Amino acid sequence: MEPKRKGYMRKSARIALIWSAATLAAQPTMAGTVVVPNVTANNGNAANSDPFNLGAGASERYQQVYDSYLFTPAFNVPELITQLAFRTNGLLCQCATTFSATLPDVQIDLSTTQSAAGALSTTYSANVGADDTVVFDGALALSSAGSGRVPPGTFDILIPLQTPFLYDPNAGNLLFDVRVFDGATTVPFDAEFDFLGFPNGTSRITGALGSATGFADSGVAGGLITQFTFTAVPESSTGLLLLTGLFGMAIVARARRNGGL
What we know:
Elements: H1 2-25, E1 31-36, E2 46-48, E3 60-66, E4 79-86, H2 90-93, E5 98-113, H3 124-127, E6 133-145, E7 157-167, E8 173-182, E9 189-193, E10 202-207, E11 215-216, E12 222-224, E13 226-232, H4 236-257
Helix pairs in contact: 1-4
């Protein structure tokens, strides 16, 4: 009877392992995008070269804050930000919008901050949140097909994050913190600034790399129009499925010890 029992264990182990792996693989990943500031469905009212169009060998520190309310139409629970995207604005600057370039050395951080649009401290460290995360570090390849001349422009300047960032709008605003150690020439990106006195939920400070402080725009607030791609945090059921998979592997290990596999 023992050989039959081993055969049954071998079959059960394989079925359990295959089922758990297939179930885990089938779990859907809910993804979405949100454009901030939200008022810029079409092209923005400015073209901005900071921080990605500085020229070869140039450097800069750039911080931009996005108020949390800009995200809540899309999500108001913790979500993983997985990609940033920008678009050109040839409509306003009347410049070439098709480009392909690589910035040799760039670091991008995201964090949750209590600093708000129009109220960023000029001291960089005062704006950085406790959950500060390096989401990209290294050579940054950027390109665009130049769709900015026909509004609304396409967000085709993509920065997939090496490390996703978990952001909860209920915990604070989002800080986009860029250090360009070695830049390149690209084109001006689409931007939105508060020229008419209507707050748009974003503002920036810029300055020399290595300096502790930067400079805010005088009299207006604004910054790059940004598209964020976000995905849902895996639900607790995924953890249960993972345990099921581990249980299946435990059966396999036990069968092997008993000489059934």
